[in-house]
Amino acid sequence: xxxxxxxxxxxxxxxxxxxxxxxxxxxxxxxxxxxxxxxxxxxxxxxxxxxxxxxxxxxxxxxxxxxxxxxxxxxxxxxxxxxxxxxxxxxxxxxxxxxxxxxxxxxxxxxxxxxxx
Amino acid sequence: xxxxxxxxxxxxxxxxxxxxxxxxxxxxxxxxxxxxxxxxxxxxxxxxxxxxxxxxxxxxxxxxxxxxxxxxxxxxxxxxxxxxxxxxxxxxxxxxxxxxxxxxxxxxxxxxxxxxx
DNA sequence: GGTATGTGCAACGCCACGATTGCAGACGAT
DNA sequence: ATCGTCTGCAATCGTGGCGTTGCACATACC
Lengths: 117, 117
Prior knowledge:
2 copies of one chain form a homodimer.
Chain A: H1 5-15, H2 18-27, H3 34-40, H4 45-57, E1 61-66, E2 69-74, H5 76-109
Antiparallel strand pairs in A: 1-2
Chain A binds a DNA duplex through α4.
Protein name (chains A, B): Helix-turn-helix transcriptional regulator
GO molecular function, one term (chains A, B): DNA-binding transcription factor activity
Organism (chains A, B): Nakamurella leprariae
């Protein structure tokens, strides 16, 4: 496993914000500093800095010092992990729900098969 | 495409809550009504009802009337869609960032190749 | 018809989140 | 050494989300 269940909720929380997606999309194109992002997006540099630390906490962005400034990059691998994890959960649902459905259908045509044994 | 960008943020927002995940995990096992969920989870039925409508708005649960009660089921297909969409975004990042990296390396060994034309 | 169970809507309080402003420290350039 | 720029921390404000309580309506069962 790559992420615990409560961690997954934190990552999803980080992804559940429009401004952070703007930042991520921008950093998915090329690296940029917080000040540079503040000039491109309609929010303050401090707000962007907070978002960046939050994104870094869940591993969605990576900082790289370049002189006196810090260039940030979107971490694609982390996003892939989240996507795979969601699909894994979905697979678990389909299996269990199909099992329940089969049991219901079996009980419909043959109610209480345990008695026969 | 299955989901627009702002819709994706809404779905992720619905997934960014611990109580809603408890509901989803429970409904991923078998269908249940809001009242039944209220007896299993440490929250009120009204709170669960609000969560269910929110999850329904983004297509993560499906209601089915069974007599006087409404049984809800987790929609696995929707979660798969979200996972695939996240992976698609991640793929876009990796391609663009690798392109930028190549350009940087090319400029390192051959600075300003445009002049040669 | 009466009772019990399940659902629906509205109002309220509480807390976290997003964004802003202000100030201070650190590093590079001149 | 000085100036300009980038970063960092703290305080504040407004808004939205989560949960609760209370009441009203609909439906199945006796």
